[in-house]
Write a structure and sequence with these properties.
Blueprint: H1 3-9, H2 41-49, E1 52-57, E2 60-65, H3 66-79, H4 83-133, H5 137-140
Antiparallel strand pairs: 1-2
Helix pairs in contact: 3-4
Length: 149
């Protein structure tokens, strides 16, 4: 079939656009793409607070986040005697105190878990040794009572 006969056989209709209106090969049907949505205030604030900035400290350049730079400036100004910076720092302290309390609590829980697993592992080793010696673990290694605090 030639091009002329193909064009005659093509019927324009539902879901069959004219050849002149079809997308060209390699061309998107949505050239501009999906429009960007407005960013939330939280997203903008997060992006800005965690952006990297370069600072010079003790003659050396290093990169830190904007949030770190802000806190460092507040602490520096508070120690210099700026009462407004001291007020800001006092408002930040409860956040730090809460985080420290949580970290201490988590460390205590981890320590207790490690102690319990170590005790059970030790007991398993002692039982294996007692079995090798042909005696009962309770007779060779009596259980110690935990000290009362």
């Amino acid at each position: 079939m030639s091009d002329a006969s193909k064009k005659k056989d093509y019927e324009v209709g539902d879901c069959r656009p004219p050849a002149s209106k079809r997308f060209r090969a390699g061309t998107s049907g949505n050239p501009k793409g999906r429009p960007k949505t407005a960013r939330s205030t939280v997203a903008v604030l997060h992006k800005q607070l965690f952006a990297q900035v370069s600072i010079v400290e003790n003659g050396r350049r290093r990169k830190i986040t904007v949030l770190e730079a802000f806190v460092a400036k507040v602490i520096k100004d508070a120690f210099a005697g700026d009462s407004r910076a001291q007020d800001k720092l006092m408002k930040l302290l409860p956040l730090v105190d809460h985080e420290l309390a949580r970290d201490v609590e988590m460390a205590e829980v981890r320590e207790q878990e490690e102690q319990q697993s170590t005790t059970s592992n030790d007991r398993a080793v002692l039982e294996a040794m007692a079995e090798m010696l042909g005696a009962s673990a309770e007779r060779l290694f009596p259980k110690e009572e935990a000290p009362h605090d």
